[in-house]
Amino acid sequence: MANHSLSSRRQTIVAIFVAVGLIFLGRLFYLQVIDDSYELSANNNVLRYVTQYPARGLIYDRNGELLVYNEAVYDLMVIPRQVKDIDTAEFCRLLGISHEGFATRMIKAREYSRFKPSLFEKQISKETFGYLEEKMYRFPGFFVQPRTLRKYPRPMAAHLLGYVGEVNQSVIDKDPYYKSGDYIGISGIEKSYEEILRGKKGIKIRMVDVHNREVGSFQDGLYDTLAVMGNDLHLTIDGALQEYGELLMQGKMGSVVAIEPSSGEILAFLSSPTYDPNLLVGRVRSKNFSMLNQDPVKPLLNRAMMGQYPPGSTFKMVNDLVGLQEGVLGTRTFYSCQGPGSSPIRCTHNHQSPLDVYVAIQQSCNPFHWHVYRSILSNPARKNVRENYVAWRNHVMSMGFGHKLGTDLQFELSGSVPEASRFDAIYGKGRWNAMTVRSLSIGQGEILVTPLQLANSAVVMANRGHYYVPHVVKTVGENDTQSGRFKKVVSSIDPKHYEVVVEGMRQVATMGTARWYQVEDISMCGKTGTAENPHGKDHSLFMAFAPADNPVIAIGVIVENSGFGSTWALPIASLMIEKYIKGEVSRKDIEERMMNGKIF
Amino acid sequence: MARERNNVFSNIDWTLTILYLVLVLIGWLNIYAAVYNEDHKSILDISQSYGRQMVWIATSLFLGLVILLTDARFFSTFAYVIYGLVILSLVAVLVAGSEVSGSKSWFQIGGFGLQPAEFGKFATNLAIARFFSGQHVNIKEFRTRITPLVLLGIPALLILLQNDTGSALVYSSFILVLYRLGLSGNFLLAGVFVVFAALSTLMVGPLYVIGLLAVLAGLLFAFMKRNRRNILNLAGLLLLGIAFIYTVEYAFEKVLEPHQKTRINVLLGKEQDLRGAGYNVNQSKIAIGSGGFFGKGYLNGTQTKYNFVPEQSTDFIFCTVGEEWGFLGSMVVIALFLAFLIRIVNLAERQRSDFSRIYGYGVAAILFFHFMINIGMTIGLVPVIGIPLPFFSYGGSSLWAFTILVFIFIKQDANRNALL
């Protein structure tokens, strides 16, 4: 029966089988070996990357006192797709939210993604977390993610420390490290040391099944990375001094900055009015922020770096130094100060006349400094007033005025020492002279300094001609001392000229405007200033360093709208110096008067 | 004859038998991997499908043994009776069966379900073999063509009524048997053309297919003997093809309801439906594609184990092979299947009885159809048609049915010398 012509059809049939087999192999080769997008899809299916948030680094003061630490909080997260059959009423009651609140949160989460976790309620308290934890199994789709928040055991230095908040979209777009919901330092040290403090996020890779139930870790955690805690910072700040300064400044507007002259380390850095840094943490932050932001006394403004004031008489030594360097002023140069006609600028003090530079500083004589200034600008060694002014300005700027000092904090303002071109613009080129810009001779007019610059100028005096870039961080982590980072800056004035003005400053404290606030056993050198303020009462200024021969602290104090430098700024500075050098203050009456003094 | 009857096992083809055992064993291991459950680690755990599959394997082997011990002539003699009984059960399941996932095709007996449709395959194969081994059959005659169409049509129709399209389509595989019996190769070509043209028309639109057709015709024209008859034939075929393509297009656009169109589009991958058929194929491709060259290793597959692939122990069992054993393992499995099919064809050709040979080709055709559709579906070459991968897919009915199908042939082959 077998039909032999037909049995050859076996080959055709076998060929069909083999052809299909080969097509399959080709397709499999493409799917499995060539195209690797499937592997990615498979991973997306099964792997869930859970971020492990590191705790931010701790912050200590220069003596190892803890200033900032972390507290655990819990973010309640939701994966909308997994939320099924939950007792909404009970859930809302546990969280203390309304039904509408629940609904809007769910809608928002769903809009983001039905499959990915999104934030449902941030930073629930430990107590709420406690209630919730036991009942979590009844609310499928919800889980808590531990986070940390900043906590301040001794609320102080709010402006310096800054605050932390959720990262915004423009940062996320720029820096791939940040993901939505991450925290980032927004101001102060938290901002400028963000990369050191933030640590490193970790990833836990979990495997989930098709219902998004966790079924274990991926390859036993082989690819998991632990979160690395941020590095700790040891500040140059002296916590006790800082705290004391804030007490002294309460009820006043202004700023105190104290610096160690030999290193540029900032010992105290305060802006008043201040606020409790704990206010700008966690869920209450945005509410408190807008409250502080609307406060007319501007507690959020960091006056220490962003407040700009005319230096007033504290600027007089700077002029003297330029005069000495330029050779138009000597220690035996006398000018007379007698009556209204002797100078375009009145003298406000009673003192001998004629007088030399020492007495002029000691008595803060306006006419003397006008004469010095005029002889600088009319120095025949240079072609004209303008060139003399440019030379004057360069000297002034070399002492740390008119430019940012380059601290390790952000948002520093540069103050102002006007350029010659500015006067050209106002008066016309060649049509201005010492007389026109005379107020610069006594630190008024277009010149502006920040409290930081004021304190730094005390450093320059203390060091007889140089400063180190002021900074607030001493060591990063265990032992990175940042050495070499904060450079020494030398002024264009010969150190020997400083001895002259320093002697004047010493006399200020012993015989002059500051004689009522001498500190026992400490030789202080300083200068008061009373800056005319077109907007209101004069600002009270004082800059000083101590002890005279081996200075350990330089300080600048500005108290806004409080009148004479000797009334507020001086006593506060002298108390700070006493506190820092002696550890405690003996002049309790002055201390009490300062602490209780209310100016606004 | 006495000697052979005593040595049932010495006459059977061990190559085929061992290939069968190997495929069944690999299948079982893959079911274990596909639904592997930490809480039930033993492959023999009856509460899990891998444990139950072991029961199906044991009973299948028993069934095979019974068939080997049965007189070979029993199957040819009672072919129509068996066919009739299975047809009756197919009718019965429509009346008394229970519905599982949309198909009314199960008899529920205790905890186990039985699917008569699976048994329709070997029974129909017996009937077809019986019919063509009879006297006075000539495939060229119209009358001879009608009877097998009826024999195939009845079970196919009944299974269609159960809403089990995949199993009904299996009967189209007999075109290979008919081809071997002398049906013109043009039917095979026409069949391939119809399927290809219809699918590609729906997928890429009629113009591309007509373009391809024109290119083919041009090539043919260039190489063929250009006499008037050939040219006319070619032109006629081309016109016929174009007419067919537009008929398909018209039927799809104008006759079908929108939801039917959607379903077909999803099957063809034109529409994404991640919750329906589109989801299955996508996940299946992801599982297989993520296996890479060497695979993720046994029991390390994530896509199948964690249920991303639906039906991962039944229709989509090949995903486990692809994911855990990679391209290498897939190649081995495909090679084993091809070896199995080619072995059957070779054995069929050595049969002296027409019944055995035709039955053998039927076995090869049925298994080939399952192989082609099932694996083709998992790698996205064929629309999702739910039929099992022989010996691999979990399920008692299908394993029993494939075992019976194969062992009747092994028995016939073992007996090939005795019959004449």
Task: Name a few traits of the molecule.
heterodimer, A: 600 residues, Penicillin-binding protein 2a (Domain 2), Beta-lactamase, 6-stranded mixed beta sheet, 5-stranded antiparallel beta sheet, B: 420 residues, 3 strands, 68% helix
Structure report:
The complex is a heterodimer of chains A (600) and B (420). Chain A has two domains: 51-235, Penicillin-binding protein 2a (Domain 2) (Alpha-Beta Complex); 239-279 and 299-596, DD-peptidase/beta-lactamase superfamily (Beta-lactamase, 3-Layer(aba) Sandwich). In chain A, 36% of the residues lie in helices and 18% in strands. Chain A has helices at 4-7, 9-34, 37-46, 88-95, 99-112, 126-135, 158-161, 169-174, 188-192, 194-197, 239-249, 285-294, 303-306, 316-326, 357-362, 366-377, 385-398, 420-427, 451-462, 495-510, 569-582, 588-596, and strands at 47-52, 59-60, 66-78, 118-124, 142-151, 164-166, 183-185, 202-208, 214-217, 233-235, 254-260, 265-272, 466-468, 473-476, 488-490, 525-531, 539-546, 553-559. Chain A is elongated and about 135 Å long. The mean pLDDT of chain A is 89. Chain B is mainly alpha-helical and 420 residues long. Chain B has two domains: 2-183 and 284-414, no CATH class; 190-255. Chain B is built from 18 helices and three strands. Chain B has helices spanning 2-6, 8-11, 14-34, 49-69, 73-77, 79-96, 116-132, 142-161, 165-169, 175-180, 185-204, 206-223, 228-255, 258-267, 277-289, 318-349, 354-378, 396-414, and strands at 98-100, 103-109, 112-114. A three-stranded antiparallel β-sheet of chain B has the order 1-2-3, with helices on one face. In chain B, helix 3 (14-34) runs antiparallel to helix 4, helix 11 (185-204) packs antiparallel against helix 12 and helix 16 runs antiparallel to helix 17 (354-378). The model of chain B has no long low-confidence stretch (mean pLDDT 87). The interface between A and B is large, with 39 and 50 residues.
